[in-house]
């Protein structure tokens, strides 16, 4: 296929470097320097998709970030599939594979197209909700069809092969946009030596200068831009980022820049290069030089392919040497757009007419048009475009001075391209991100940045200063102000010079009148991406939506990936007119991050796969892996869950591990338990304040279990604390609670009791802990130490001793979470693995058996020991879990939780209490979470008594065991409750003591 | 994302290093046992949630681990000041509280 719309020369493309690409499977050619959009237009591709709701054919309308229609799917392979790529912002590269994303089976012949024609009248706003939501059971069917027909692309089914990056930047001044204002600002600021970042979303910096016919300092504008960039790149303190969109302006001058590093090179990055990079910038001052977006006019059938923005026509000709058609009609409300007609004529094509909506335009451009012999029709408008898959004509009629009524006769004209301009909307998006409310300016006919809330300046078209002269002037001024505000000295500098242009006032016109009412006339589109029409907005206001924010939500205007860049102001104007209000009275337009869509890759950077979240390993981890352990995540820790042997089911493994521990000896890696070293002369008093029980008399060498509550009296952590010295304690916490507990201690010390002399330090990672548990534990340990007396008299239950284990200095705690004779052997983490291996060696004659967290849970449940967070949930206090023995109200200081657990609700009868549960059928295991009822035949909703918190099969007891909450459970021991399950079964259980094994606690004291 | 001056480290650091811990200047009653349920409930559960200036307790968790206070505008998110525990805020606008 030839590039039928390509001009023989000109533009900023390289005519000598052709590039091959495919679109919807068709092989096409473009040139180096093309965007996908310019290449498609060069090849005469009119239709790039079907519209979201009505399935109308849509073509390329714009040349930049504001393009609403040309969203393509890119990717040559499954792994490189990328949805929602804006063709106007994607550079062409050799081998690029693009396809349209809506339109089925193809955008040219679309099955849903009939809806747009036949069903149009029957699809008012809210249509999908009003129609397809009922009956709800059918939604799934509708949804499948609608999504298939109206989708905006798909993500890859495979992992992204590219590498993405995040980088933190600190800038003195960040300048957003490298058009005339941004370049002038950077030039003014560069010599200061300050750290300056100049970011621009396009592949080539220069913005409007790249397709401007003006002269700056005697040089053609595009050449001036090139030399300005050259000058800037000679400064080490200036970072130039092209293809880099500042997509979000967040609190405290934090801005994110989405840089596409290699998107323009190939389907996926090669040679280890980065695909995209997110710059996270903290800037002292920001200069927004983001320019403006041209507004299309709203008229009948304004969405037919071939209807474009006037400036886009200029851009395609001047930058890309593409003239997308032959016969142009231009409709404008302003002088600026005349350039499109001049460029069209200069490209050697026919200008059918310039239709100026103003009654008496008098700017220099009107004279220029006349002297070129171009037909100018004033006081008129294109009220309707004609054509099906491409514009083939227009209807032009005279309109009144305010643009509300058609006054003259309606004349048809032939054309194949229609350019329109309703003026320019300042690109205030980033300013809005900060929470700064934009203000309407009748002078500008648009919203401009209002009072700023951050260290933000703005220059050029964003302020409504549209002329090149004012852009250069404001850029220079604001660049100097920014650099001085950031604390740098710099000499004054005059702005680059350009000749002033005599421009006439633009007309504030948004919606072109038609001979028929809006609802009866042809469709007049406001938001192209979401298929929102002028009549839909009028309907919304008639249905009572008066705030523009409500109108937007009801019609979905501005909710596409283009965020209403072309449509929002027109929509507001139509709503305002319909409500008989002014635009500022209707509300204001608020843009939220992101300015243009950002890939998940750029956001997440390197934090994917293994680096998604930190993983914590104990010193013994490698050994567990070698033994074939399966792991459980506890917080960030990887804990061995169980150690299956060949052929074992999980229950087989648990039975083996639990039985071995009770009958001989088991070993557990307990290194992950939180350990906090507490020192200072007030350490003991401090413990008494944060724990519910007494610490005044705990002697050196002794350990004690403690419960920690919040001020509300609810249990939030537990653990054993050892007295290491008069002013020195070692606190253990739950594995998951370690950080929270440390922070809890600190906040009370720092904010409530700063007078106390006490210091906290996390030592969790300093120690490796091997717990040996079972009747043979003493025999194993005896083989490994000769300086710790192990007999029952010298080393009692709840004692701790220092000594040497396997030749390594150790702290040994005789505490037990299994109810068996247990020793927790703590050694410096560096020796952890070696000592563990020595213990395994010493224990082999006793069949020492490693067990994981699952068996640990079973063993402790056999003893009725709670796990905070499993048997408690933040709504139970110590008395609820029958731990009143661990609460000492007589302590002099009102410890944390004491007052809370005495609140009326905490002492009322009928609270849920933790009890044991014995199923009537011994091997029936009640699912955890199951709800108890007294009467399982009661109709729903049934009276629920409480849920099962822990439930296992116990091999040692040969039956199931469970703990659960039951209303007034402690006074119901021996009674029966029922657990009706989702599958229809009902499990009957007797309320009992939670201590199922060794109720007198003799085994741990031997 | 906030840029927060830690009054202990004496420099600005990224918000990622800090953690918010609720409203500041809510002292634990000195005699909890003699608080009524209403008084204890007030201490435990009720916060001012103002529109405008708000004094907040923050901690430099991934840093010096010190708690300190921030006076922040809940509308603009501007941080007016940060100050150590025990110090008084310079910015107070009781009338902005609703
Ligand atoms: Zn700090």
Automatic annotation (TrEMBL), chain A:
Residues 172-426 form the FAD/NAD(P)-binding domain. GO terms for biological process: tetrahydrofolate metabolic process. Residues 620-887 form the GCVT N-terminal domain. The keyword Secreted does not apply. Residues 522-604 form the SoxA A3 domain. Keywords: Aminotransferase, Oxidoreductase, Transferase. Pfam families: Fer2_4, GCV_T, GCV_T_C, Pyr_redox_2, SO_alpha_A3. Residues 912-998 form the Aminomethyltransferase C-terminal domain. InterPro entries: 2Fe-2S-bd_N, BFD-like_2Fe2S-bd_dom_sf, FAD/NAD-bd_sf, FAD/NAD-binding_dom, GcvT/YgfZ/DmdA, GcvT/YgfZ_C, GcvT_C, GCVT_N. It comes from the Bacteria. Gene3D superfamilies: 2Fe-2S iron-sulphur cluster binding domain, sarcosine oxidase, alpha subunit, N-terminal domain, BFD-like [2Fe-2S]-binding domain, FAD/NAD(P)-binding domain, Probable tRNA modification gtpase trme, domain 1. One of its GO terms (molecular function) is sarcosine oxidase activity. The keyword Lyase does not apply. Belongs to the GcvT family. This is Sarcosine oxidase subunit alpha.
UniProtKB/TrEMBL annotation, chain B:
GO terms for molecular function: sarcosine oxidase activity. InterPro entries: SoxD, SoxD_sf. This is Sarcosine oxidase subunit delta. One of its GO terms (biological process) is tetrahydrofolate metabolic process.
